[in-house]
Design goal:
Layout lengths: L4 E5 L6 H12 L2 E4 H14 L7 H10 L2 E4 L2 E4 L2 E2 L7 H11 L2 H16 L3 E5 L2 H5 L5 E6 L2 H12 L8 H17 L12 E4 L5 H16 L1
The protein binds cytidine-5'-monophosphate.
The site of cytidine-5'-monophosphate has 14 residues, from α2, α4 and α8.
Length: 219
Amino acid sequence: MKNITIAVDGPAGAGKSTIAKIIAEKLNVNYIDTGAMYRAFTYLIISKNINFDAKDKIQHELKNAKIEFKNNHIYLNDNIIDDEIRADIINKNVSKLAKLAYVREHLVFLQKAIADKGNVIMDGRDIGTKVIPNAKYKFFITASLEERGKRRYKQIIKKTPGIVLDELIKDIARRDSIDSTREASPLLKANDAIEIDTTYKTLDEVVSIIVDYIMKGES
Ligand code: C5P
């Protein structure tokens, strides 16, 4: 297959990463989870007890932190932190850091450099609008809030016993609200993105829709 770039955006818990990972394998392209990069940086700032208002300190950390997503793992300064970035405290705080324009600027710079190499499927909130505006394929994946909450619940209940579905739904809604209303590249469907509501669709159905669409475009 030729060099292709695929942007996948949408609200929290819509299944973007699960879908993107499968498509990456099927089409043999590199998968980049940009949410994991924002989460990794949030993990770093929280671990160092840095206040989110401390711009100088945060900028210093941005400059020095090595954040990489490769082979389906997120690395912070060469250490894998896949589990750490999924902790509740990260869920609750990541959007607060991700709305800061100077934090975004740095991470978007890193993401654009990866996208420039080509053959990539990237998922996030601003991929089709900001990171790879000229991506050949753009998808905007949605599902009802209730459905997204239920999916997230199923995903994490084993690792986080005692978690309450209603709380989870509230957290997702809170995160969506911050992500959609922030000034710096908010969560937005790109004009040329294809929207797929996955509420009543299986994972296989969504993957098929996307793969079929891309195969048509490449043939
Ligand atoms: O995709 P995920 O839910 O892991 O992303 C975590 C958070 O990172 C989002 O809620 C959002 O605040 C931020 N994010 C972002 N831009 C992206 C990817 C994620 O602002 N491209």
